[in-house]
Design goal:
heterotrimer; A alpha/beta; B alpha/beta; C mainly alpha; B: alpha/beta; Rossmann fold; eight-stranded mixed beta sheet; four-stranded antiparallel beta sheet; 12 helices; C: mainly alpha; MetI-like fold; 13 helices; 73% helix; 0% strand; globular
Chain lengths: 337, 325, 304
């Protein structure tokens, strides 16, 4: 099967944060530096026009990956390639920078409360000088607002006059205003009510089809991810544990953590039935377990898992980082219903 | 069996300078011993406010302007603040989304459990001490005998919520009001906490009102469910019926818009528009501007909860069915 | 304009203003203080700075309603024979000028420093905020005295008299800027991590544009409140400096100067020379402070 040329690629991406206490306090308490490895050795590719989703629980590093990919943080190690070009070079040129945009989680924090909607949406247009005169900007903003299901007259209002779903539409209009090809969506619907979430997801999928957009989609909600993704990456403590085509992942999840996640989702179809919850909690990324980070919670863990970190290797139509899967021990685990 | 909690025609108002906003109107339901009533709805639908009104913690200037709240047949909506405080903890346990708001950071979790029990139960300090450890064990905290000496900040988020559950249950209240108890937790921990809550409610015969926006949690935990919209109950009934066979168009739209986990759909069903603000609730049925099955009566007259077969639904479609029959 | 007025009339601020009688009275009093002070040259019955009209024979005249008083000098005269009412009007003008200028100066410095420290963080933040910390350990009047002392030592006397007013403004301003810098830094640190700022950074908007265009408008809210509350303090600081004799030059007496002059005669029976300027100062500062208190509550969403 010929691989389509990657449009966006992450190679061994890592980002560490120094969360040490201030120097003086450290001197008195005698403790060392504390490094939080938010993202460690993450690699993936996104072919043009497709959606890669990253899922995982809070603190797994998925939002940090989003920010690395769009250049908000410089990586500690590794690199990001955007359309074959190193991200740092790409972001140096406005003509490249305008090709990527981001949609954020909180519709209340992502729009400047003091700006009118038309100025919010026009900010990228003005920053990149995409229209020659004020009339051109106004027409373009009007068209964008229409495109996301609002009215051109809404431009004169302030963000607080809109509901959460409408604000997210404004956020999408802003992201689209520089005619980008790649959108990074960081939990775009997790702050919305479920009926509004459907509106926004439908809108995003329509736009992808119509404009040929490439998405990096970050979410903790597996059901949402299933609806939008071509490929899904499951993250745990800063690393990818499984990368798989969306259908394969849901048909046959392989990594014990992926299975645990699926098992944990309260499912509508199960009304009135009990299910077996996963034990334990996500450990701190400042002091992650040795070997495979999931081993303290894993029903399949053995001594190898405690000492040796598994690599992400091909297994059954997907990439899985698990000794048990690679050794063929995983089949003994009860299938997720 | 007579219900633990009965809410009759509850009305909550917020006086503002632009007139009085009616946040809850005509809300009626009851919860039997050992029963879990789920209350769902979108943000602003009034689900949390219903819980706050019951535990007597409405945020001012909000006030109960009508109706009654009865706990084991006794009215509690008109009690003074100090009387209500005695009932909270003893008769009603409350669990909130953020466990840190419930726990006192300056005391060990053991002290907090012991104090709560000594305040509300006729037991000796020695017994309370023993029971504190038992409670921590019961909510699944490992090494409970040692952890009883720990402070809230020494627990992780999921463990803290377990402590809060122990604290809410230790005085053996008749009713638990849990407002989004799992929303702040990760999925894998949510499942543990929900299972725990449900088991304890069953075992102790405690009535539970579970407020959440997560239909999955409701489907899994609740016996009956009330769906709220714009300050009123749109539909109430057994959870299975409401989820699988909703009778109110809003419930149907809400259920359809939940992305399915077991398959990919071409397009999600969506409800256009947004829930109205309290200051602009439409005349007639509040849902009528968004309703796909709206007809003339809906815009004029507001429907009460009507018998819709397996559930009660506030929708004129069911009145029509009756008159036709 | 009419639209803006209608918006104000409809706003929560106006509503909360109308509902507080104390605030309405304070606002009226403050307005009267400002108008009379600004219009002093036109409404004052005498010109206290015109040496030609001064007559030492008119000195120590009591207020008009006391037996020896003259109708021409409503609040009496001081030791130079100046009409006290006129001197108070002119003095209030100087007090207000110094107070407002010093507050504006402090706000400009404080907001800039707070914005920079909060936005840039790291070493810049640590440095600027330690300076603010150190300065806050000194009473502001001491800082003002220090600045005034340095300028006095640095420039010749006649130059100093000319720039004395501005020295006082700067002295008070410098002693007050940390009060603006700290809250602005705090809210800047909150705002700079909000997603609308990230959105601007994704498209490559420069840090300066983000600071001025995005963050600044969102951190200015509390500044108005601090400025109003500080205006009263600045007026008092000026009065204190002038009372100590290091403030405005004696040729341009402020309320503080008048109080100091009058203080010498307080116990020899000429109480009016110090009491009337003192009462004026209290009324002015009190009305401004009450306005500030109201503004703080009205703009605080938690108290609404």
């Amino acid at each position: 099967m010929p691989e389509p040329a990657p449009f966006v690629e992450a190679r061994d991406l890592a980002r560490y944060f120094d969360v040490s206490r201030p120097v003086l306090q450290r001197l008195f308490s005698g403790e060392g530096r504390r490094i939080l490895r938010a993202v460690d050795g993450v690699s993936f590719t996104i072919p043009k026009g497709t959606t890669l989703s990253l899922v995982g629980e809070s603190g797994c590093g998925k939002s940090t990956v989003a920010r690395l990919i769009v250049g908000l943080y410089p990586p500690t190690a590794g690199r990001v390639l955007f359309d074959g070009q190193d991200l740092r070079q790409a972001r140096a040129a406005a003509s490249q920078r305008r090709r990527m945009q981001m949609i954020f989680q909180d519709p209340y924090a992502s729009l400047n409360p003091r700006w009118r909607v038309e100025d919010i949406v026009a900010e990228p247009i003005r920053a990149f000088g995409l229209e020659k005169d004020a009339a051109g900007v106004r027409d373009r903003v009007g068209a964008l607002l229409t495109q996301v299901g609002l009215a051109p007259q809404d431009g004169a209002k302030f963000p607080h006059e809109f509901s959460g779903g409408q604000r997210q539409r404004i956020s999408i209009a802003r992201a689209l205003s520089s005619s980008p090809e790649f959108l990074v969506c960081d939990e775009p619907t997790s702050a919305l009510d479920v009926s509004v979430q459907a509106q926004i997801l439908n809108l995003m999928m329509d736009l992808q089809r119509r404009l040929g957009l490439t998405y990096l989609f970050i979410s903790h909600n597996l059901a949402v991810v299933r609806q939008v993704s071509d490929t899904i990456g499951v993250m745990y403590l800063g690393r990818l544990v499984e990368v798989s085509p969306a259908e394969t992942l849901f048909q046959a999840p392989q990594h014990p953590y992926t299975r645990a996640l699926m098992e944990a989702i309260p499912d509508m179809a199960m009304a009135g039935h009990a299910r077996a919850p996963v034990g334990g909690e996500v450990p701190s990324p400042i002091d992650p377990p040795t070997g495979c980070a999931f081993h303290p919670r894993c029903p399949l863990a053995n001594t190898r898992c405690k000492v040796e970190r598994p690599e992400l290797l091909v297994a059954g139509g997907a990439m899985v980082a698990c000794h048990a899967v690679q050794e063929g021990r995983a089949t003994s685990m009860p299938e997720a219903a | 069996m007579s219900p633990i909690l009965e809410v009759r025609d509850l009305r909550v108002e917020f006086p503002t300078r632009r007139g009085t906003l009616v946040a809850l109107d005509g809300v009626s339901f009851s919860i039997a011993p050992g029963e879990v009533l789920g209350v769902v709805g979108e943000s602003g639908a009034g689900k949390s406010m219903t819980g706050a009104a019951i535990i007597g913690l409405l945020e001012p200037p909000g006030r109960i302007a009508g109706g009654q709240i009865l706990l084991q047949g006794k009215r509690i909506d008109n009690l003074r603040y100090d009387q209500m405080r005695r009932i909270r903890g003893r008769e009603i346990g409350a669990i909130f989304q953020d466990p840190l708001t419930t726990l006192n950071p300056l005391y060990t979790v053991g002290d907090q459990l012991i104090e709560t029990m000594l305040t509300h139960l006729p037991i000796s300090p020695a017994v309370a001490k023993r029971r504190a450890v038992e409670w921590l064990e019961m909510v699944g905290i490992p090494a409970a005998a040692q952890r009883v000496q720990s402070y809230p900040h020494e627990f992780s988020g999921g463990m803290r919520q377990r402590v809060v559950i122990a604290l809410a249950l230790c005085a053996e209240p008749k009713l638990i009001v849990a407002d989004e108890p799992t929303t702040a937790l990760d999925v894998s921990i949510q499942a543990q906490v929900i299972a725990l809550l449900k088991r304890l409610a069953r075992e102790k015969g405690t009535a539970m009102m579970l407020v959440t926006h997560d239909m999955g949690v409701i489907a899994e935990t609740a016996d009956r469910v009330a769906v709220m919209y714009a300050g009123r109950i749109a539909e109430i009934g057994p959870v299975r019926e409401v989820v699988k066979n909703p009778q109110h168009p809003y419930t149907a739209g809400l259920m359809a818009s939940i992305p399915p986990l077991d398959r990919r759909v071409e397009r999600l069903a969506q409800i256009d528009g947004a829930m109205p603000r309290l200051s602009a609730i439409p005349q007639g049925c509040a849902y009528n501007p968004r309703c796909p099955r709206v007809f003339s009566r809906c815009a004029v007259e507001r429907p009460e909860l009507l018998d819709a077969g397996t559930t009660l639904a506030a929708c004129w479609l069911h009145a029509k069915a009756m008159t036709d029959a | 304009m009419a639209n803006a007025f209608a918006q104000l009339r409809d706003s929560d601020i106006w509503w909360s203003f109308k509902r507080s009688p104390v605030t309405v009275i304070s606002a009226i009093v403050a307005l009267i203080c400002i108008v009379t002070a600004v219009a002093a040259p036109f409404i004052a019955p005498h010109n206290p700075f015109d040496v030609a009209t001064l007559n030492l024979l008119d000195a120590f005249k009591p207020p008009a309603w006391i037996d020896e008083g003259e109708a021409d000098y409503l609040l009496g005269t001081d030791d130079q024979g100046r009409d006290l009412l006129s001197a108070i009007l002119y003095g209030a003008r100087i007090s207000l000028f110094v107070g407002i200028s010093a507050t504006v100066f402090a706000a400009l410095v404080g907001v800039s420093v707070g914005l920079l420290a909060g936005f840039l963080g790291g070493t810049v933040d640590a440095l600027l905020m330690r300076i603010a910390d150190i300065q806050l350990t000194f009473p502001s009047i001491l800082v003002a005295l220090l600045v005034d002392g340095i300028v006095r030592a640095a420039v010749p006397r006649e130059v100093h008299d000319q720039i004395a007013l501005f020295v006082v403004v700067v002295a008070i301003g410098i002693s007050e800027w940390p009060k603006f810098a700290r809250p602005v830094r705090g809210s800047t640190m909150v705002e700079r991590n909000k997603e609308y700022v990230l959105a601007a950074r994704v498209i490559g908007v420069s840090s300066f544009r983000i600071m001025t265009g995005h963050v600044l408008p969102n951190v200015l809210g509390p500044v108005l409140v601090i400025a109003t509350l500080n205006l009263g303090l600045a007026i008092l600081a000026e009065a204190t400096l002038s009372f100590l004799g290091v403030g405005v030059p004696p040729t341009q007496p402020s309320l503080g100067t008048l109080i100091r002059v009058g203080n010498d005669f307080l116990f020899s029976g000429e109480w009016w020379i110090t009491i009337f300027p003192g009462v004026s100062l209290v009324i002015m500062v009190l009305s401004v402070n009450l306005l500030g208190d109201w503004l703080r509550d009205a703009l605080n969403p938690k108290l609404r």
